[in-house]
Every structure is written in structure tokens, then in C-alpha cells.
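Quick one, C-alpha cells below. Sequence please?
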């Protein structure tokens, strides 16, 4: 019985870790001055992201320039994608600035240099997103922004986005704690 309880506890901790553990920034393309119209029905944007840190994608942030709503999705792989989404949600906001989207329950696990897309599907909800020009030194330069199946302006722009994974030390401590509990037994 105790072995079963211990095994169950380890499984619960392993799956719950991202929800209560600290997170670290993986990739970012901060807002630097232009806006993308996500307001028009059937207007679909896809931002390619190349993963820098091994782990589960637990959160993304997008910069909203004009309040409104749109469908946001994530798909593993490279752009352009039109298949079923690996994660989808409605982003609705009454304000501007950085908006966080919790992806921790989607089970999106990536390795270093894997690619995925952050997509925005216009719903006529008035939403505009912020973005930046690709620049060296400090801004994300390993992805492309796509609009309706083509690279937008030869890849000179990106969404303003940030991606987060669980802090490796948090997961390591949880794993060590589980091992110690089992050892003590």
C-alpha cells in the first residue's frame, strides 16, 4: 500500500510541477514598435519559434497593442500549418501590454532546436498584436513570421512574444525528493 501511495505521489508531483514550480524565460522577441492586424476574419498569422531550452512549454506572453479578441494556437513543427492545433484558446483583453497564456495543461514538450508556431486566427474581435523588426544582439532571430501561408515581408518582422519552461532546478529538486522518499522506505 505504501509503495502504491509513494508511486502515486511521485506521478502527481511530476505532472503538477510546472503549475507550482518556478519558470524561466526561454525565448523572447520584445515589443519594438509595429502592430499586426489580427482583427479581420480569416486572417491567420503564424510566428515560428525555435526552442532554446529543453522542457515543457508552460506559458507564452504576447504583446497586445489594441484590445480585442482572437483565437491563439500552438502547433509543433515548422510553419505554415493548417492541421489540427496542439493547443488553442481564445485571447480576450480589454487592455494593452503583455498578456500571459497558460499552456501548462497542453503537454507541449520540446527539445533544444525543436520548432513550433504561435498562431493567431483573426475572429473580427478587434485585436492587434505588437511586434518588432528582427535585430541582432538581444532580439529573437531564429524564426519567421508568416501571414496566410507566406513569409511576411521576407522574414523581417516577429510577434512580440516570450516563451517559458519550468526552471530545471525546480524539477531536479522534485525528482531528488521523490528518490529520497523511496530510498527512505
Amino acid at each position: 500500500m505504501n509503495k502504491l501511495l509513494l508511486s502515486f505521489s511521485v506521478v502527481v508531483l511530476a505532472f503538477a510541477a510546472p503549475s507550482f514550480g518556478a519558470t524561466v524565460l526561454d525565448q523572447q522577441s520584445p515589443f519594438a514598435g509595429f502592430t499586426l492586424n489580427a482583427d479581420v476574419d480569416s486572417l491567420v498569422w503564424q510566428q515560428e519559434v525555435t526552442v532554446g531550452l529543453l522542457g515543457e512549454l508552460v506559458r507564452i506572453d504576447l504583446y497586445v497593442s489594441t484590445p480585442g479578441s482572437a483565437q491563439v494556437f500552438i502547433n509543433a513543427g515548422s510553419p505554415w500549418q493548417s492541421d489540427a492545433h496542439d493547443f488553442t484558446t481564445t485571447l480576450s483583453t480589454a487592455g494593452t501590454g503583455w498578456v500571459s497564456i497558460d499552456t501548462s495543461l497542453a503537454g507541449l514538450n520540446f527539445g533544444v532546436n525543436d520548432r513550433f508556431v504561435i498562431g493567431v486566427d483573426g475572429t473580427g474581435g478587434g485585436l492587434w498584436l505588437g511586434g518588432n523588426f528582427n535585430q541582432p544582439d538581444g532580439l529573437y532571430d531564429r524564426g519567421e513570421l508568416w501571414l496566410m501561408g507566406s513569409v511576411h515581408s521576407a522574414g523581417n518582422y516577429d510577434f512580440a512574444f516570450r516563451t517559458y519552461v519550468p526552471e530545471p532546478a525546480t524539477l531536479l529538486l522534485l525528482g531528488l525528493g521523490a528518490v529520497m522518499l523511496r530510498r527512505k522506505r
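DSSP finds two helices and 15 strands in the chain. The radius of gyration is 19 Å.
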